[in-house]
Amino acid sequence: MDNMEQAIGNLTTFRSDIKVLDCTIRDGGLMNNHKFDYDFVKVVYDACVEAGIDYMEMGYKNSKTQFPKSEFGPWKHCDEEDIRKVVGDNDTDLKISVMADAEKSDYKEDIIPREESVIDLIRVAAYIHQIPLAIDMINDANVKGYETSINIMAVSKVSGNEIRNALNALMESPVNTIYIVDSFGSLYPEQIRRLTTQYLDIAKQWRKNVGIHAHNNQSLAFANTTESLIFGASMADGSFAGLGRGAGNCQTELLIGFLRNPKFKLRPLIKAIEKWVEPMRAELKWGFDIPYMITGLLNDHPRAAMKLMETVENPNFVDFYDEMME
């Protein structure tokens, strides 16, 4: 093992610095155009509060021009009045997060000053070529009083030098946390370990945190998340029962069980999953399946697999495999 790659802690201890962000509503909303009803969002919120989760991501802060309200539910835009219908003034320890996509968010107009909002954290999502715009978005949110983080998307497609340059540029910004994002569910734990080390080697010098957001195309979201935490990441994303785009995410309940921190409670998550989340699976059809595995192996976006699973009643996996391999 390289000297830089040293595990932190062990399975009989817990690290109090690790924070958990639940992205059930935001990532899960990609399966239904963010049309979850208020009752369901309140169930997730209450369960997160009771379970001791650190952050709950309500959805996106994306453009109403690009994503009209007539086609998308309230969690695509996360207007203040919609969030407050669920959380009120959020007089809890749970922090509220929203995500703003680079080139898809009217952030200067739609993100209001922090003192007027119940939102605590603005998470910017950007591909490597969008880093300059992402830095402007981070600066804007910081001036308005928010915590900030950035999800550098699709790092499995990015060279080491490009990542290094992006990280160096981000260090000059006020961003608090930089996320490793396995957008296509194509990475393996050894690769996650190396990325975590690369990110931390730069971030620690600037007192920035590193986070991990993993997708489950190869059933590795939990393994990749724990690997990143073991080697020093301190923010981790999960969702109830893995509810998320395509193959889904690291399961919040698995993550809470792994972390050993006595502040976390597993039972509220299991209750919400049993009564509310699992009954949605037949309709939303997220989770590991052969087409998602194929796109993960090919390091491709899962859109083709999602289209197949959403539109074909009895999909032919062999035909899909042959088509993707051409």
Task: Please characterize this protein's 3D structure.
By secondary structure, the chain is an alpha/beta fold. The protein has two domains: 19-284, TIM Barrel (Alpha-Beta Barrel), CATH 3.20.20; 291-325, no CATH class. Helix content is 40%, strand content 14%. It has 14 helices and eight strands. It has an eight-stranded parallel β-barrel, surrounded by five helices. Helix 8 (221-230) links the parallel strand 7 and strand 8 (235-238). Helix 2 packs across helix 3, helix 2 packs antiparallel against helix 10 (267-277) and helix 12 (290-297) runs antiparallel to helix 13 (303-311). The radius of gyration is 19 Å and the shape is globular.
Features:
single chain, 14 helices, alpha/beta, 8 strands, TIM Barrel
**Biggest beta sheet attributes:** 8 strands, parallel, barrel
Beta fraction: 5-15%
Structural domain count: 2
Number of helices: 14
Total number of beta strands: 8
Topology overview:
Blueprint: E1 19-22, H1 24-28, H2 38-51, E2 55-60, H3 80-87, E3 95-101, H4 107-110, E4 121-126, H5 131-143, E5 147-152, H6 160-171, E6 177-182, H7 189-203, E7 209-214, H8 221-230, E8 235-238, H9 252-259, H10 267-277, H11 281-284, H12 290-297, H13 303-311, H14 317-325
Parallel strand pairs: 1-2, 1-8, 2-3, 3-4, 4-5, 5-6, 6-7, 7-8
Helix pairs in contact: 2-3, 2-10, 6-7, 7-8, 12-13, 12-14
Short description:
With 326 residues, the protein is an alpha/beta fold.
